[in-house]
């Protein structure tokens, strides 16, 4: 169905990506200083996905991408696609599934696998 995944950038700001049903990133948001702003924008987008505008571009390398606009505001930028058809499929996935996609929060600085790795590595 797709999911919004919240994480942190290297500069400690928050971002989210929207992933497809197969787990591939479709678009990445802009940066947010506070996590609640990120969460609020996801909810706002989910409620207003039908009002989203997708501005399509072809980059200098020949790949396709879109900028997602919500109102007059640049909301997110897509990944690069090799064909315009794949770009259109990415947009379709957003339109069909974003309004009911779950939100996953991986913004914690702690690794969820840290304890398991220590046990494996040191036999504890």
Structural features, described:
The chain is an alpha+beta fold. It has a single domain (3-122), classed as PH-domain like (Roll), CATH 2.30.29. Helices cover 29% and strands 33% of the residues. The chain has helices spanning 35-47, 84-97, 114-122, and strands spanning 3-8, 14-19, 25-29, 52-58, 64-70, 73-78, 102-105. It has a seven-stranded mixed β-sheet with strand order 4-5-6-3-2-1-7. β2 (14-19) and β3 form a beta hairpin. Residues 115-119 have low confidence and may be disordered. It comes from Flavobacterium cheongpyeongense. This is DUF1508 domain-containing protein.
Compute the gyration radius: what is it?
16 Å
Largest sheet: 7 strands, mixed
CATH class annotation = Mainly Beta
CATH architecture: Roll
Q: How many domains, in number, for the residues?
A: 1
What name does CATH use for the topology?
PH-domain like
Strand tally is 7
Shape category: globular
Strand numbers in spatial order across the main sheet: 4-5-6-3-2-1-7
The ordered string of helix (H) and strand (E) elements is EEEHEEEHEH
InterPro entries: YegP-like_sf
Protein name: DUF1508 domain-containing protein
Organism: Flavobacterium cheongpyeongense
